Amino acid sequence: MDLGKELLKAIQIMVNRTLKNYKADCTYKTGIRGIDKKGYVITDRAGGERAVQCSIPGVELKPGQIVWVKEPMGKLNEIHICGVAGNTNNLNKRSRRR
User: Fold this and answer.
1) HSE-CB of 61 using CA atoms within 13 angstroms
2) Alpha-carbon distance 51 to 68, whole Å?
3) Average of pLDDT values for 62-86?
4) Cα angle at 41 between 35 and 44, to 5 degrees?
5) CATH number, domain at 45?
6) How many domains does the chain have?
7) Model confidence, pTM
């Protein structure tokens, strides 16, 4: 019985270590707090402000808009805006022209 418990304990340790080092994309909603020369200022998951680029071509965002932000593989230096939550004036104008 002790051997079984020791094996389960060893497996649990290995699983915990693997999960601790696991990195994956993380996408979440946040608001645009402002615009500066480096990009759009958003609030990240930790609550800090960060200037990021928008990966959506042809869209101009405004302070107060809610956007989707992606942290690829947990790399904060590669964080970017990947979507807009809801309609924006820019998107409505583009769809009327077509």
Assistant:
1) 29
2) 14
3) 91
4) 170
5) 2.40.50.140
6) 1
7) 0.66
